[in-house]
Write a structure and sequence with these properties.
The structure holds two protein chains of two kinds. Chain A is built from 14 helices and 40 strands. Chain A is of the alpha+beta class. Chain A has two domains: 403 residues, Purple Acid Phosphatase, chain A, domain 2; 226 residues, 5'-Nucleotidase, C-terminal domain (5'-nucleotidase,  domain 2, Alpha-Beta Complex), CATH 3.90.780.10. In chain A, helix 10 packs across helix 14. Chain A is globular, with a radius of gyration of 25 Å. The chains are: A alpha+beta, B mainly beta.
Chain lengths: 653, 203
């Protein structure tokens, strides 16, 4: 006999209802539940731009994706195909968010997620950006105060029950592996349960155990982050004792589709439903997520992951897409998955980031065993060029209206002056790879982490791809404006929109040489194009374009420089880290600042993963605004050609 | 089935404390439908073993791991049933509060079990578990007219490697019984909390 929930009808009668009544029916047929998942929303209420299902899609053909109202419409359409559904997340739904959410303490993120219909979400590292108490406020609702004083930008309430209020999250943040030291209990519930046709499905939510290393220490004070797999495995018998056999893990940890060194014929198109390299690292070792799944109890049926902002679908429905153009692309099914403790392949998914993609997972449940017997995931672009979706939004503009209201409210800050520049600095690289906008950002990041208490950084690297167009220039929307130009917050945010946080780590001289060598195409895990990092003024190096992997870096010099003052001050003589291609003192260590994306091996910079004494720091935009403030309100304007900025920093031979 | 009247006072204090925390009150129909409750000391807001609401549902369920209680109003007479499900070996405290006060009960004694036992009786059907009274702890009460609130907690837990798991589920049902008017009046006049039906003894 099957147990059937009759929640819905009762819910109509009782506003506060929880213990669902169950009735008995005679059917025992397997049924399908639709799980809709996504990760790393980061408060991206508005489109983050265009996105293609794979790299073969020409740039001009990639649709605009994302935006809260589009996510809501896509979720609604998916839910419409199966009344047995649940919407879940794998963390970083808040934090590192655009101004439209960040200014309002991420209340817009929560309100739009409520409207999208999220039910359970794992905490991610960015959920801790503002500390656990603020996270609990976002969960429970209520207005933000600072020292007892209400924040004027809190409780706008455009997406809450009433203006002047903030509902809090209608979804449940889950933190199975985050324990409050004071109580010994998890900060937030370890799991959530939703029942379908009488069968309970548990969702265990976790963040990466390495969270303390990538967030500001004050955000995680008093908390312990426990091992992900151990946490799940300890919960399994508890859940089984409650009759739960269907178990989904929502974990804010992930991997990348990598071309593994030494293997052949791997697809390089990064299709959103691909699983190139089976989430192994370039050197063939297990990625973080693969290592976690390898130790998971066999009871876990599906892992919805995140953190890396990568899209992948490692499951029975994985496809390999090979080709050089869309026209000649060949798509091949290749069932995959990550082996668990028992060796069984477990499906693992991730949906890129910023609302670009949704993962639609149809799971088959056998009501006799109460277990998931089949899992069929599919990553779907949240494309804005879908006619039916646009019609749905036109018919119900409620989410769109919330976004518009916050857009209007954010305008005053967006227009605030943050610094004055004497000339434009684009994100165009010279032949050596140096960008004027990149120099400024790297200096700002070094400045923000240079004090001993904030990291004690001596050197800063910034990935070129994170220096967004158009750089620090007069916007094209104000053509009559000339230099010197008063940069606005919106201008700065346009260049630094990702909300990455700074990470300061210790690297050896050898590792500095190695990571510089890792910049070049096809070298030590780098992709097929050069990725020349931007550097702060304390470092200079030259590279030989005729060299081969591991032999291109010629000279690297380090000049200790205090960049927290204007103008920057050299504080000690220049030393050679590398001279004539030879590392001078390979084991000597330096404190190096990068962003959290690079620190985790992003953009092919795997060397940074080996950094030690890792300390989290400020958000990149905050570092930039703070640095630019040295150049505003009557201070001397920032002159990108000033001698003390020590340009050029990168030389190509 | 046993009724531990000797522990009535102490149990009343304990259970009224639970009731004070109750965040979710579920109204029950009296058609015999089973209503599930959960115990999980790890997740319970209180850290205790009281029945909690773990079933989150946007259409109404809180799933907030706060204490869970049930309420219903009996017109004449109704049968209340409690049963443990899934892994056998759990037993429960039960407290029934009406206008005339709170009465404590315990569900039937069953053998203690460990998850590592070679044989661990398991049943995922409320009716099926109720039929297997030798293995699944249960309780049956006959209640007279009145409005009742039921709370509960775990008394004996299944163990995992010898340690109490304190994580389980059970169910509660109420079935209205058509009653001769005369008897209903007698019960109502007496302000009866419950007439406890005797059940056969078990090992």
């Amino acid at each position: 006999m099957q147990v059937r929930l009759i929640c819905a009808s009762l819910a109509l009668a009782f506003s506060s209802f929880a213990g669902c009544a169950v009735a008995q029916t005679a059917t025992k047929a397997p049924f399908t539940v639709k799980i809709i998942g996504f990760n790393d929303y980061h408060g991206t209420l508005e489109t983050p731009g265009t996105f293609g299902a794979n790299t073969l899609v020409p740039t001009a053909s990639r649709p605009a994706v994302g935006g809260a109202e589009f996510m809501a419409a896509y979720v609604a359409r998916m839910k419409g195909t199966n009344p047995l559904n649940v919407v879940v997340g794998a963390g970083d739904f808040i934090g590192a968010s655009p101004l439209i959410s960040a200014l309002f303490f991420d209340e817009p993120s929560v309100e739009t997620l409520n409207k999208i219909g999220v039910e359970f979400n794992a905490v991610g590292n960015h959920e801790f950006d503002k500390g656990k108490d603020e996270l609990k406020r976002l969960q429970n609702g209520g207005c933000k105060t600072t020292n007892g004083v209400p924040e004027v930008n809190s409780c706008k309430g455009f997406g809450s029950a009433a203006q002047g209020s903030f509902d809090g999250a209608k979804f449940k943040w889950l933190s199975a592996n985050v324990v409050e030291n004071a109580t010994g209990k998890t900060l937030l519930p370890a799991y959530g349960i939703k029942t379908f046709n009488g069968v309970k499905v548990a969702f265990i939510g976790m963040t990466l155990k390495g969270t303390p290393g990538i967030v500001t220490p004050t955000g995680v004070a008093g908390l312990t982050f426990q091992d992900e797999a151990d946490t799940v495995n300890a919960l399994v018998p508890r859940l089984r004792a409650q009759g739960v056999e269907s178990i989904v893990v929502l974990v804010h940890q992930g991997g990348f589709q990598n071309v593994v060194t030494g293997s052949t014929n791997q697809p390089i198109t990064s299709d959103v439903n691909g699983c190139t390299g089976d989430l192994k690292n370039v050197d063939g070792t297990d990625s973080d997520i693969r290592a976690i799944v390898k130790r998971l109890d066999n009871a876990v049926d599906l892992v919805i992951s995140g953190h890396t902002h990568s899209a992948y679908n490692c499951s029975a429905t994985t496809i390999d897409v090979r080709g050089t153009t869309l026209a000649n692309a060949v798509t091949t099914a290749r069932p995959t998955g990550m082996p668990n403790k028992a060796g069984r392949l477990v499906p693992v998914t991730s949906s890129s980031a910023f609302g670009r993609v949704l993962t639609e997972v149809d799971v088959t449940i056998d009501p006799t065993t109460r277990d998931i017997t089949a899992v069929s995931p599919r990553n779907v672009l949240v494309a804005q060029n879908d006619t039916a979706i646009n019609s749905a939004i036109a018919n119900d503009p409620s989410v769109k209206n919330v976004v518009a209201a916050y857009k209007a409210a954010v305008s005053p800050l967006a227009n605030a002056v943050v610094g004055t520049i004497t000339a434009g600095m684009t994100n165009s690289a010279n032949t050596a790879g140096e960008m004027e906008a990149g120099d400024l950002i790297a200096d700002a990041q070094l400045s923000a982490t240079q004090p001993a208490s904030l990291g004690g950084a001596q050197i800063a690297f910034m990935n070129a791809g994170g220096v967004r167009s158009p750089g620090f220039v007069v916007p094209t929307t104000t053509p009559a404006t000339t230099y010197p130009y008063n940069l606005t917050y919106a201008d700065a945010f346009t260049v630094q929109p990702f909300g990455n946080s700074l990470v300061t780590m210790t690297l050896t001289a050898q590792q500095i040489k190695d990571v510089l060598e890792q910049q070049f195409a096809n070298c030590n895990g780098q992709g097929t194009a050069n990725r020349i990092m931007q550097i702060a003024s304390s470092l200079k190096y030259s590279w030989n374009s005729a060299g081969t992997c591991g032999t291109r870096i010629v000279d690297v010099t380090f000049t200790p420089t205090d960049v927290t003052v204007v103008p920057p001050v050299v504080t000690a003589p220049t030393e050679y880290i590398v001279s004539g291609g030879v590392v001078q003192n390979p084991s000597k260590t330096y404190r190096v600042t990068v962003n959290n994306f690079m620190a985790t091996g992003g953009d092919g910079f795997g060397v940074f993963v080996g950094g030690t004494s890792v300390q989290g720091g400020a958000q990149d935009i905050d570092a930039l605004i703070s640095y630019l403030s040295l150049y505003k309100n009557g201070n001397v304007a920032y002159n990108p050609t000033a001698v003390e900025l020590a340009k050029p920093r990168i030389t190509r031979q | 089935m046993s009724i531990l009247r000797s522990s009535f006072v102490a149990a009343s204090f304990a259970l009224s404390a639970i009731a004070a925390q109750a965040a979710t009150i579920v109204p029950m129909t009296q058609d015999g439908s089973w209503y599930a409750f959960t115990v999980d000391a790890l997740s319970a807001k209180s850290g205790g073993v009281e029945w909690i609401d773990s079933n989150y549902d946007l259409s109404g369920g809180a799933g907030d791991f706060q204490a869970l209680s049930f309420t219903f109003t009996v017109a004449d007479k109704a049968i209340l049933k409690l049963v443990d499900i899934y892994a056998a070996g759990d037993t429960y405290n039960l407290a029934i509060t009406s206008a005339s006060g709170t009465t404590a009960y315990t569900s039937s004694s069953v053998a203690a079990r460990d998850l590592g036992d070679a044989v661990l009786p398991f049943n995922d059907s409320f009716d099926g578990a109720f039929a297997d009274s030798a293995n699944f702890s249960q309780l049956t009460l006959t209640l007279g007219a009145g409005t009742y609130t039921v709370t509960g907690s775990l008394l004996q837990s299944v163990t995992d490697g010898g340690f109490a798991l304190n994580s389980t589920s059970g169910g509660l049902s109420v079935t209205a019984v058509p009653e001769p008017t005369s008897l209903a009046l007698v019960l109502a006049a007496a302000g009866v909390v419950g007439v406890v039906s005797r059940r056969r003894a078990r090992g």
